[in-house]
Amino acid sequence: MTIIHLQAENISWQIDNKHIIKDVSFTAKQGETVGIVGPNGAGKTSLLKCLYQENKMTSGQVTLSEISLDLFDRKEIAKKVAVVAQQHEAVFNLTVFDIVNMGLIPHKAFFESNTNSDRQLIDQALTQVNLQQKKYQVFNTLSGGEQQRCLIARAIVQRPEILIMDEPTNHLDIYYQHQILSIVKQLGLTLIMTIHDLNLAAQYCDRLLLLSQGEVRAFDDTEKVLNETLIKETFHIDCLVDRNPLTRKMRVTYAGASHD
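^ ABC transporter ATP-binding protein, sequence as received from the core. Prediction below:
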């Protein structure tokens, strides 16, 4: 039986009577990857912030395993949902270990010390993202890809059920884009992420939520959402979507801006 892990129902969020998100509904099944795509200003990041309550919704509801998010306190939410934001907070001289160790906070009482099991969990997470050798290096001295891997390690230590990521491949070269997405897919978590590269979305996402001006244009299996008509109407660019029926791989090739 398919388990709906997260459900967003008619989410709206506005600023000064201007709708940024309007009546957005979608679901994320347990263990699947849902990609949120759309042009700049479509409301992708704002929607993510509604999901983990950084933005207070004007209306609508988010449920986790059929329980309203409103019934959880912040610590309970942090035990279930980990977030890797697009903008990293200032961490000054904190090391990789310090950052990853923060993932334990939802599971600890104030001033509770780490156990041997905690330290093993941190080491295992660092090994998973191939950062064990940089355990005591200052976070701010890492490359962009290494910083992303460090934040993923923190999320692993947090032991969430759902991972939310905002543009995890932003400002990374092709090698690190695929490395980061491969790592998170292998975690087996329910993953919800915004992503601007439609070819990466085609390769790594099970379903896509297409937003335009804060509203849902489409929500369906990736191969159904990525079609020439929807892409042209939403992004105002001509394209060709190639589909390989044997490998089920897709590729979007752009022809140029549409003048319609």
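The mean pLDDT is 91.
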